[in-house]
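Researcher: For the record, we're logging two predictions in this thread. I'll number them. Prediction 1 follows.
Model: Prediction 1, sequence and structure:
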Amino acid sequence: MLGNNILGRIRSVMDELPKSEKKIGEFILHHPEKTIKMTTAQLGEAAQSNSPAVIRLCSRIGVNGFTKLKVDLSAEIVSEEKIEYADIQSEETMEDIKGKLLGNAFKSMEETLSLINEQILENVTEVLSKASIIYIYGIGASHLVAENIAQKWSRIGKTCICPTDAHGLITMMASTPKASVFFSVSNSGETKEIIELVSVAKKHHIKTVGLTKFGNNTLTNQVDFVLQTMKPHESRNRSAATSSLHAQFIATDLLFYYFVMKDYHQSMKKIKHTREEINRYKSNF
């Protein structure tokens, strides 16, 4: 059963924490067993910080108080099976590489699913269901996720546009019909082009949805609705986004199936119809 993944949440926001909260976070990450036996005052003192910083950290990671944090953390550290992120090293065997890639993929998806609650899915599903057009945009690896979103929702009858040219997107949004939605994808939440496009969408009264990593970033604060993924561990020597893509894809898959379940029979009818059309097209070759 998925918990609240306290350690994963703390790791995700460590880079953005003020010094007092960062000390608390570091202590919890290094001493989870000790933390669950402490009061806020004891933790503040042990971390060379203070008790208000403990409460602020709980709020920042979306946990309702230190007692709740301890309960969730206790369940997390007694879990029978722990899978941690692992970097690929030089001269690894093929079996080692397979195991590490599988473990990293599982960990990033597990942590992301633990982060997303039903209310978040309900809010995003509602705005997408009412959308006349869904514009989806991402840059680099995030564009792969944007294309995946467009492909999925177009199969169930939504008009989706996933351009590669920002100028073209701006001209479309400037004259779009009412009830359009702009779905932006940025793992960092700080991609300048994405942030500017959100501003353009808002200028034209377009509802905005963001897919980004957990924490306090510009995209999270700017969009109307946000779907967050847990910040995954990426190797310093990575050649491309890996764990972050797994997290984004599982988040959009979860959203898609939640959307489908709201009108299951009609959605499946449309999916079947699109599959039949594809097969009919392919039969001509």
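Researcher: Logged. Prediction 2.
Model: Prediction 2, sequence and structure:
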Amino acid sequence: MNLTMLVTLRTILEQGSFTAAAGVVGCSPSAVSLQVKQLEQYFGRPLFDRSTRVVVPTAFAREVVSAVGDFSHRLQMLRSRPAVEVAGRIRVGVITSMQSDVLPQALHALRQKHPTLDVVVPPLNDSDEMISELKAARLDVALLVRPEAGGSRRLVWQELHRQPYVLLAPPNASGKTVRQLLESYDWVGYDLSLSGGRVAARYVRSLKPDARCVMELRSMDAIVAMVAQGLGVSVVPQPRRPLVDAYAVREVGLGSRAPFRKLSLVWRNSDEGNRNVEAVAQAFATAFGLQRRP
């Protein structure tokens, strides 16, 4: 048994079902069920009455949650107490497109200013995945795209940059406007499984309803390379300047009503004021300041 199982049990009672609790703790309903079974084996008695269609917590389950409530709260307070110095280990998630953009500058700044802070960057790529990992306390901070709906109130959202979408065209493309370029070339899509890809697709189809996506890619480097070879045009969040210059692709602005995405640094409410989190936030804010284009 571990504390995570007890937190899951408390969440089930708060949310009213295994499925709702799974969404809060950041795991699947089957994983929640497994944790409950392990707790029942540990205590040697049932925690839920399963004789009806809706599982009902037993009196013993409520007693367990009551006993662990104060203990869990006190542990969380100890965990979130601001550190005197910036040191220790912090897990930072970063979306793919920012891993080669601002991440190197932020890590360099942290290493120079806080050499005793061990920054771990797990192999995570998607904003939704990182939000789940934050809620489950498997990540401490994440740089990601804020959902269009606003995002969970259980998290602190610090907006760092509004990244506009642009159209990328081959170096010698003849069309002058975005519409002309979309009419003249195939469309290289930005991964439609990502919220950013869906935003780009909506914009493309608002100008060319019958647009056909000839290929769909997640890697920004791959998209730029395809466009540079004349294989199509693409609407994407504005790539980093060195990448655009290296391939000599043409970047076309989408005007004053161009869509954009909100790049935000996110952490749990309970970590507000944590020195390590503040140091990471400052490093990324500085990196974005260095990366902004005139």
